[in-house]
Amino acid sequence: MRVNIALAQVVNQQERWQHVKVAPTSLCALLCQRSQTKVGVLDIDICGPSIPTIMGVQNEQVHHSASGWSPVYISNNLAVMSVGFLLKGPEDAVIWRGPRKNGLIKQFLRDVDWGQLDYLLIDTPPGTSDEHLSIVQYLSQTQLDGAIVLTTPQEVSLIDVRKEINFCQRVGLPVIGVVENMSIFICPKCKKDSYIFPPSTGGGEKMAADFRVPFLGRLPLDSRIGKCCDEGKSFLEEVTDSPATQAFVQIIHKIQAHCSQEQSSRETETGEAMDEG
């Protein structure tokens, strides 16, 4: 009975979120923020919470109020919640078994006071572990937009990512699409292309076709992106001339178009159901 009550509280909280996605989150959030939409970022990489560093808020703390945990606000329309805010320092290791991870994820979903959101972006660790099972279970009663699957072109990465897509399909989680990261390296001086990770078996595009899911695009490798992440800066603003920035903008527009279409479809179905009633 206690579990049912907790899940009901989670679902009640989710009624205030318009779109819920599992995504390569920090970049999505920073770009969505530009359009003045209200975005929440939930970092459920419990053992390796990197979102606070990437988004430049690693020294912040969360506060508890009568309405729940207050997330860390990067701007008026962008808020972040991560286990990284609950640790004593960035070097602290989180040595937890599955049940404790599950409990924290449930608490994040139930108790964080996001307010009204247009998007809730969820950053997950690689693979198909406790975190993924928990988030799918707790959000199963909501209308998830789906997962964005990130891969690199080489077969050693694709082997694992195929399992992740299979996981999504088996648990009924829609796959919005596949993004191929580090697809090529473009030299900033000579502008020549180099394949750091050759797509020996067809890369992310072929894998997406094999699973019949959309291929959203390729992100070139740019060393300046890593530097911006280390410094907590947005490369979308710092490195506007990067081919990676331009590619990411196009990918995000596809994701937003998908979410808008799903929202319209749900509203149409709701309207038809009310008419029939």
Summarize the structure.
The protein is α/β, with parallel strands linked by helices.
Describe the overall structure:
One of its GO terms (biological process) is iron-sulfur cluster assembly. It holds the Pfam family ParA. Keywords: 4Fe-4S, ATP-binding, Iron, Iron-sulfur, Metal-binding, Nucleotide-binding. This is Cytosolic Fe-S cluster assembly factor NUBP1 homolog. GO terms for molecular function: 4 iron, 4 sulfur cluster binding; ATP binding; ATP-dependent FeS chaperone activity; metal ion binding. It is a single chain. The chain is α/β, with parallel strands linked by helices. It folds into 2 domains: 144 residues, 3-Layer(aba) Sandwich (Rossmann fold), CATH 3.40.50.300; 110 residues, P-loop containing nucleotide triphosphate hydrolases (Rossmann fold), CATH 3.40.50.300. The protein is 44% helix and 22% strand. Strands 1, 2, 5, 6, 7, 8, 9, 10 and 11 form a 9-stranded mixed sheet that branches. Strand 9 and strand 10 form a beta hairpin. It is globular, with a radius of gyration of 19 Å. The relative contact order is 0.14.
